Amino acid sequence: MDLTNEQKAQVSAWISEGLGLSDVQKRLAEEFGLNMTFMEVRFLVDDLDLELKDKSGPRPDADLSRAPAPAPAAAPGDDEPLPFPGAEDDMPGGGQVSVTLDKIQRPGAVLSGSVTFSDGKTMDWQLDQTGRLGLIPRSDTGDYRPSEGDLTEFQIALQQELQRSGRLP
């Protein structure tokens, strides 16, 4: 979706004010009548080279002193994981987030695969027909919730992997 220069400037202003992606998504719909998925807004912010402001500090229950577990080997038939470049410098635990794409997609998904977060926990992901991105817990992850930094890295690594594989322009 192409935005006018005025709309791009307004998105930049909203991001500089500290608005999050969902707030920008709502404002685009309310003020410009542009209905975009969360992922489209994320890609727009990336395309405009804008930096989101991190409103949250470290979680009080997060144990940052623990070394991350080694990433599990890719399942047979999966592509090799793509580590997020440069993340080692940004994240306390090493910042390794890797994404794989499934060769055969999950039922009901346009795209699917798995993600291994910086602490070694692995979850499945899928992108549905409406553009919604979802994380699917595995039996060994229980009620695990990845950190905000890992989620951001996941979205960026996913975009890079989709571009590399030719599934995104």
Overview of this structure, please?
The chain folds into two domains: 5-47; 82-164, no CATH class. The chain is an alpha+beta fold and 169 residues long. The protein has a five-stranded antiparallel beta sheet, with helices on one face. The chain is 33% helix and 13% strand. It has helices at 5-16, 21-32, 38-47, 87-90, 148-164; strands at residues 82-83, 98-101, 111-116, 122-127, 133-136. The protein is globular and about 45 Å long. The model is unreliable at 59-94 (pLDDT under 50). Helix 1 (5-16) packs antiparallel against helix 2 (21-32) and helix 2 crosses helix 3 (38-47).
Number of domains: 2
Number of strands: 5
Subunit organisation of the chains: single chain
Biggest sheet overview: 5 strands, antiparallel
Structural class: alpha+beta
Enumerate the spans where pLDDT stays under 50 for 5 or more consecutive residues.
59-94
* Molecular shape: globular
Residue share in β-strands? 5-15%
Please state how the strands of the largest beta sheet are arranged side by side: 1-2-3-4-5
User: What value does the average pLDDT take?
Assistant: 77
Number of helices, counting only DSSP H or I runs of 4 residues or more:
5
Distance between the termini: 13 Å
Biased composition (Low complexity): 65-76
Biased composition (Acidic residues): 77-91
Region (Disordered): 52-98
Biased composition (Basic and acidic residues): 52-64
Quick description:
The chain has 169 residues and is an alpha+beta fold.
Task: Supply database-style keywords.
single chain; 13% strand; five-stranded antiparallel β-sheet; alpha+beta; 169 residues
